[in-house]
Specification:
650 residues; eight-stranded mixed beta barrel; alpha/beta; 43% helix; 60s Ribosomal Protein L30, Chain: A; Alpha-Beta Plaits; 26% strand
Length: 650
Amino acid sequence: MMWTKTIIYSSQDALREFLQNHQQIFKKSSSTFVQVYTPSKKYHQGSIIRDYIMTQLPQAVVNEFELEDWKNSIHIAFSVFDETASYMKLEDQDDISEQMFKSLFEHNKDAVLSLDVKGTITSVNKSVEDLINMSADEIIGKSILDFIPKKEKKRVTNHFLRTLAGKEQSYEIDLELKKDTYLYLEVKYVPILVNSNKIGVFAIVRNVTEQTLNKKKITQLAYYDRETQLPNRTCFEEEISKRIKQKDHFSVMFVDMDRFKLINDSLGHSVGDQLLKILATRMQGVLPKYSKLGRFGGDKFIVLLAGKNVASKQREENITIVCNAILEKIAEPLIFQEDEFFITASIGVSVFPADGEDVRRLFRNAEVAMNRAKANGGNRFEFFADEMSKQAKQRLELEKYLRRALSYNELFLVYQPLVDMQTGKVIANEALVRWQHPKLGVVPPSDFIPLAEETGIIQEIGRWVLEKACLTTKRWQEQGYADLVISVNVSAFQFQNANFPSEVKEVLQTTKLAPEYLILELTESTMMSNLDQSVKVMMELKKIGVRVSVDDFGTGYSSLSYLPHLPISKLKIDKSFVQNLQTNPANLAIVQAIITMGEGLALKVVAEGVETSEQMQQLKSLHCHYAQGFHIQKPLKEHEAVQFFHVIVP
């Protein structure tokens, strides 16, 4: 039977009088519940009332609630459960206990099992049947270990024995119901006591599969790269911080794909991501035991290479072996969707603790070393050295200046003439970009072109060079040099862009230069980095009427079998072969072979880097078509170049 009463508090004396008047009711049962409802502005007073009631009714449960919408009065609600009236129909205390246990056992949402001292299951509730999809008859009589994976049986047995010794136990366990389908469970063991004797164990099992899977998803998103499933930067930072505290021996390697932006720009990021997955698998295949590969986003990876407590020279040799293995594996030709790709990488290495004693410094120095590897041509690795930090700062400053160079009109073009070897006449000019900075002076192209390519600024610079060169050539043609041709170097980033042919067409329309007077030069390595895409772009340019020339021919790694199928018009012999033409028989043989091959493929051949009259005469005797170099003329500014057009070079 339940007795309830609510009063409005007016004073402590009135509350005391109420408690005294109803003390017989409170004495009937130990189950007394009191709720104190207090307006916000009287919260402190409500706490005093709660404490007072607890001293007067020691066995009562007193709760206090702060209610915003109650403005003035404090309300106190008393609820008293009359035990004798409720239990009158129960024959004795054993019946009461049995019904209480049965209610708790049968209606518990958690799975509850009772085990005897041998671990045999003696009873289960409905939740157990639902959890493992078995009936009580199939479960009862079996050992609890029958449901435990072999690798976990020892641990579970230890928990069971400790519980029989009187200590409650809690643990977590995964059960595989079928292949790749798991239950994640929280288990609590409680000893069963009868007359102070331990006669078994209650196992209370909670299914936390959904929460565990959600937690794993959150962890996966927080610590692993979505595309490759490799550990991400956050994961590596925590791992390396732990190793630093343990004073382990290790090194950090930053691996960045060279010119990978070309692939993303030309074929899309989805293809790029697929290629990166293949490259990640390749790298994992050559990494030694106890090393770890991660992805920092984009085409940048990190390797944590565990080291041994060996001499620094030996450690450096071990790292060198791993770096070379990674570079060789990445450089292997990669075929994807019938396209063949040639990809290289640059690696920077920092070693703990020599190159940094915290995560930030180790990462920064590895990246500095990686940038040095890129600046030195890529497809290589570099160890961090202290002087690199200063150079990295200079590089950042140079990048800042370069981003403003176009808008500040600091870039300009110079033109180096190409002459016909038979007539000695200037038939074309090669446009070369230069940078005059007010503070740094003339910045060499070898310093800023690679930086422009790496940062993507080359797209803007390349468009400006193309437009400026075409505009100038059109003006020269109108001045009487009607057949003058302009040759423009194209970066790999520009050429692999799917929109590049459209940009060229737009520039020609803007400058009104006829397409047959434009030659675009690309290096052999640029062409071969993605040959199929290169051919597509060249075919588009051919449709427009623009010709393509292969620059620095002989220095790359192309297969000559591709050459007859390329829509090109010229081959430029690299100056390294021309400069030692008369003293090195091997160079002479190479130059002669290229010229002969050009004739056989109906391609014009240009010799660049001609510096002496002897070289000029030798090339003439080999029937080379065109030449360019300092012997003929150095690169000239626009107003100087036009004065050279009428000169006949002997």
